[in-house]
Amino acid sequence: MRQITTEPLTATAFAPYGDVLDATSDFRLINAGLCRRHHDRAQMDFGPDGRAGISIFDATPRSLPYAFDLIERHPDGSQAFLPMTEHPFLVIVSDGPDATPRAFITDGAQGINLHRGTWHGVLTPLHAPGRFAVVDRIGATPNLEEFRMAAPWTVIAGQGLA
User: Fold this and answer.
1) Range of the domain at 80
2) Is residue 44 part of a domain?
3) What pLDDT is stored for residue 160 in this prediction?
4) Tell me, what's the pLDDT at 145?
5) Distance between CA atoms of 94 and 16, rounded to whole angstroms?
6) Which of 15, 68, 99, 158 has the highest CB neighbour number within 10 Å of its CB?
7) What is the domain count for the chain?
8) pTM: predicted TM-score of the whole model, two decimal places
9) Would 130 be classed as within a structural domain?
């Protein structure tokens, strides 16, 4: 059985795949000093023929160990996942269909932005409800490529789980 072990989601470890969206960076006060704005946390990319759209996803929660054999990518735009609850979720990314994937666990207060073209697993909440605001490319052409693996990978609990 092919296995990968979870690791905590950090900006450094996730940098090759995208941006970590959290409220830990420098900020400026707005709204009469009652709100901290953590400014410009992701580089959104919608290509020359796309625009930003916000959708709501409601995904079925999964648990570890978690077996998967499908990864996908969006060649024409980045894709940001912003959880609408404070529960950790699983983020699977890969350098390509034949590469060994990596599995990250968010800390419950993080979202992610996947760079354009990044191979990744499907949305994988670990708790109900699995509700996310998703910012991604809206356009006239398809923006999804899927790859089904010949043999599945299994994600097992490691670092990053409380």
Assistant:
1) 2-156
2) yes
3) 58
4) 97
5) 10
6) 68
7) 1
8) 0.92
9) yes
Confidence of residue 161 (pLDDT cuts 50, 70, 90): low
- Rounded-to-integer distance, Cα 17 and Cα 10, Å: 11
Question: 119: Cβ–Cβ under 8 A, 6 or more apart, which residues?
Answer: 71, 72, 73, 93, 94, 95, 96, 97, 99, 101, 147
Residue 86, domain CATH: 2.60.120.480
What are the backbone dihedrals phi and psi of residue 14, each rounded to the nearest 5 degrees, phi first? -90, -10
Domain membership flag for residue 162: no
Average pLDDT, the chain: 94
C-alpha torsion 79→84→87→93, nearest 10: -10
Instruction: Single out the residue of 44, 161, 54 nearest to residue 108, CA to CA.
Output: 161
Q: How many residues does the chain have?
A: 162
